[in-house]
Design brief:
- The complex is a heterodimer.
- By secondary structure, chain A is mainly α.
- Chain A has one domain (2-202).
- Helices cover 69% and strands 0% of the residues of chain A.
- Chain A is built from nine helices and no strands.
- In chain A, helix 1 packs parallel to helix 8, helix 4 runs antiparallel to helix 8 and helix 5 packs across helix 7.
- Chain A is globular, with a radius of gyration of 19 Å.
- Chain A starts with a helix and ends in an 8-residue tail after the last helix.
- The model of chain A has no long low-confidence stretch (mean pLDDT 82).
- Chain B is mostly helical.
- Chain B has one domain (22-202).
- Helices cover 63% and strands 2% of the residues of chain B.
- In chain B, strands 1-2 form a two-stranded antiparallel ribbon.
- In chain B, helix 3 packs antiparallel against helix 4.
- Chain B is globular and about 65 Å long.
- The N and C termini of chain B lie far apart (38 Å).
- Classes of the chains: A mainly alpha, B mainly alpha.
- The interface between A and B is large, with 47 and 45 residues.
Chain lengths: 205, 208
C-alpha cells in the first residue's frame, strides 16, 4: 500500500512526464491554448495511460521478458521476445486510442469536436509509449504499482497542461517581444514551470 | 541535373533553415530536449532519427497507393516500429554505452512527431525519391538543432565536448565555475527558446 502511494505521488510531482522527461510536448504546446480543451485532453491521456499500462505490464511479464513464457512449458524457458516490445506496445496503445475515440464521439460530441485531430494523435503521444517503456525499464513489482504509476503520470501530465493553459490565457494580454511570441515564450514558461517543479525532487513518502 | 532537380534541392535544404522541423514546424520536441545534456547522445540520436525518417518515408511512399485511408495510422506505426527496433538492436550491438544513456528515448523515436508529421504530410503524396530526400532533410534539420543545443549544454554545463576537457584548467584556477544549471532539464527548454528567438529575429516572416 505504501509503495502504491509513493509511486503515485512520485510520478505526479518528481518524475512528471512533462517537466522531468519532456514527454508529450507536441500536444502539450499545441493544445494548451484554453483551459477547457486542455482539461479534456488531460482526462483522455490519463484514461489511456491507466488502461494501457497494466495490459502492457502483463504482456511484458508473461510474454515478452526472457523466461516469461515458462508458463507454457519447460521448453519455452529461454525464449526472449523483448525485441518485439516496441511493436506490441504501440499496437495496444493504438487500438485503445481508437476505442476511446469512438467512445468520446458517441457520448460527448462537443469534446470530440474541440479536440479534433489531437484525439487520434494521442496514439503517437510520447507520454503514453514513454509510460510503458519506463514501466519496462523500472521493472515494477506487480500490476497494482504499474497502474498507480499510469494514473500518477497521467494526472501529472494533466496538471502540467492545465497550468500551462491557464498561464497562456493570461499571457494573451501581455506585451512579449515580437520574435519570442508564440512558441518561444511557451518554451520559456515551460522551463520556468519545470524549475518550480524541481523543488519536489527528493520528495519521499 | 538528373536526380537532384531544383525542386528536390528545396525539399532537401528547406528543413535545414526556413522550414526546420523542431523550431518552425514544432515537431519532435520531446526527444530534442531530453537527450541533449551531452553532445554525444545528441549526435547519435540525430543520426538514428535521420535514418528512420528517410527509410520510413521511402517505405510509406512505395505503399501509398495500397494503404486504405482509414487504417493508415496503424500501418505507419508498424513500419516505424519495425525500423526503430532495427535501430535499437544495432545501437545495442555497436554503441552500448550511448544506448544506455538514451534509455527509453530510442524507443520513443516511434512516437517522434517528425515521423508521423512527415509521413502524413509528405510521403503519402510524393514518390519514393522525393520522400527519401525529404526524410534526409528533415532528419538533418532535427540533428542540427540537437547538436547546437547539446554543444552549448555540454560546454557550459560540464566544460567538456564529447567527453574531452575543452575549457583549460587555468581558467578554473582563475575562479571560473561550470554552470550546473545547464545540465538540468529546464535549461534545455530555455536554450531552444533562445534559438527560436534568434531564428525568428532573422526571419521576420515567421513571427506571430
Amino acid at each position: 500500500m505504501e509503495q502504491l502511494l509513493s509511486t503515485f505521488v512520485r510520478s505526479i510531482f518528481v518524475d512528471n512526464m512533462i517537466f522531468a522527461y519532456y514527454l508529450g510536448m507536441c500536444s502539450f504546446l499545441a493544445v494548451s491554448k484554453n483551459v477547457k480543451t486542455a482539461m479534456g485532453l488531460g482526462v483522455a491521456v490519463t484514461f489511456i495511460l491507466v488502461c494501457t499500462l497494466p495490459i502492457n505490464y502483463l504482456l511484458e511479464n508473461y510474454v515478452l521478458k526472457e523466461g516469461a513464457l515458462i508458463w507454457l512449458g519447460e521448453e519455452f524457458a529461454d525464449v526472449n521476445l523483448s525485441f518485439l516490445a516496441f511493436i506490441l506496445f504501440i499496437a495496444i496503445i493504438a487500438s485503445f486510442t481508437q476505442l476511446v475515440e469512438m467512445f468520446v464521439e458517441k457520448f460527448s460530441p462537443s469534446l470530440y469536436a474541440s479536440l479534433g485531430i489531437f484525439l487520434p494523435l494521442i496514439a503517437v503521444n510520447c507520454a503514453i509509449l514513454g509510460g510503458s517503456l519506463f514501466m519496462q525499464q523500472r521493472a515494477f513489482e506487480n500490476v497494482g504499482v504499474a497502474t498507480a504509476y499510469g494514473l500518477g503520470s497521467g494526472l501529472g501530465w494533466m496538471l502540467a497542461i492545465v497550468g500551462m493553459a491557464a498561464i497562456r490565457e493570461k499571457l494573451a494580454y501581455s506585451n512579449v517581444p515580437k520574435p519570442l511570441r508564440g512558441l518561444g515564450i511557451s518554451f520559456i514558461i515551460t522551463g520556468l514551470m519545470g524549475m518550480a517543479f524541481m523543488c519536489f525532487s527528493g520528495l519521499k513518502i | 541535373m538528373g536526380l537532384i532537380s531544383k525542386k528536390n534541392k528545396e525539399v532537401l535544404t528547406g528543413p535545414l533553415n526556413i522550414n526546420n522541423p523542431v523550431i518552425v514546424q514544432m515537431l519532435g520536441i520531446c526527444s530534442a530536449l531530453a537527450v541533449t545534456s551531452k553532445l554525444e547522445p545528441a549526435i547519435v540520436m540525430g543520426l538514428s532519427v535521420t535514418a528512420v525518417v528517410a527509410f520510413a518515408n521511402v517505405i510509406i511512399s512505395l505503399l501509398r497507393n495500397t494503404i486504405p485511408n482509414r487504417i493508415r495510422i496503424i500501418v505507419q506505426l508498424v513500419v516505424v516500429a519495425a525500423l526503430v527496433t532495427v535501430v535499437s538492436e544495432v545501437l545495442k550491438a555497436f554503441a552500448y554505452d550511448v544506448n544506455k544513456q538514451l534509455s527509453v528515448f530510442v524507443g520513443l523515436i516511434i512516437t517522434n512527431c517528425i515521423l508521423m508529421g512527415r509521413l502524413e504530410a509528405f510521403a503519402l503524396g510524393n514518390g519514393p525519391w522525393e520522400s527519401f530526400l525529404d526524410g534526409i532533410g528533415n532528419g538533418i534539420g532535427y540533428a542540427l538543432i540537437l547538436i547546437v543545443v547539446g554543444f552549448f549544454r555540454e560546454l557550459l554545463g560540464s566544460g567538456t565536448l564529447l567527453g574531452y576537457q575543452v575549457i583549460p584548467q587555468c581558467v578554473y584556477d582563475w575562479g571560473y565555475v561550470n554552470n550546473g544549471l545547464m545540465i538540468l532539464p529546464p535549461m534545455a527548454l530555455i536554450t531552444i527558446a533562445v534559438i527560436i528567438w534568434v531564428h525568428r529575429a532573422r526571419n521576420k516572416d515567421l513571427q506571430e
